[in-house]
Amino acid sequence: GGSAADDGRLLSDLLQGGARQSAVLASRLASMRMLNDMWASGKIREALAQLQRLDDLALAADIVRSGALKDTRLDLECATNLLSTLRALLDSSFEDYQRASVAATSQLSHTFGPLIRSTRSVSPDQLGVNLSAEARVKRCDAAYAQFAALAPRLQQLAEGRSPLGRPAADLLAQLKGQLDLR
After folding, report:
1. Residues 6+ away with beta carbon under 8 Å from 120
2. Which end of the chain has a smaller Cβ tally under 10 Å, C or N?
3. Pick the residue with more confidence: 22 or 83?
4. Sequence-separated (6 or more) residues with CB below 8 Å from residue 41
């Protein structure tokens, strides 16, 4: 057995670690409440921008898993901004984060894929002078680029021995079909 001093140091270390964990959880809860309040008041774009600024993958994974992306108030610009966070989750070494990213990316692809594909298929000559159509094409091109940036990591997961191999391959096929991703 150890000495009483060793036992005291061990107990002190455990209590100190618990205090740190409590502080982390309290901070995450405060951030989650702030994001929830923003989302509930319709400030979706601001909430997603704040999520990126917080740069907390655990919090991002929690938000993504919460089902918030099924919210019909999400627009293409919001989706494009969210895709960079989903890329960070996909690049994580944590399977749970990767799984959340794959599910959310699939949801965004189903929601916005047809719009992106059809908009990008229109020849610029067909638009004429139409500023709103040109702006929509730029937003669709930006979203397409964000989806395309996920493809190499999805391919890597699909070829690996990860339990995410099949879901990653399915998502890659979905992106290729819905977005005409190459």
Report:
1. 137, 140, 141, 144, 180
2. N
3. 83
4. none
Question: Is residue 76 a contact partner of residue 140, using CB atoms and an 8 Å limit?
Answer: yes
The pair phi, psi for residue 173, each rounded to 5°, is -65, -40
Q: Would you place residue 143 in the very low, low, confident or very high pLDDT band (cuts 50, 70, 90)?
A: very high
Report the alpha-carbon distance of residue 82 to residue 100 in Å, rounded: 13
Eight-class DSSP state of 71: -
What the block records as the tokens of 94 is 């944590």
Euclidean distance between the first and final Cα of the chain, in Å? 63
The secondary structure of residue 73, as a DSSP letter, is T
Q: Which amino acid is at 113?
A: G
What is the pTM for the complete model shown? Answer: 0.82
Which residues 6+ apart lie within 8 Å of 27 measured at CB?
Answer: none
- The three-class DSSP label of residue 163 is coil
Angle 131-159/76-91 helices, nearest 10 degrees?
A: 20
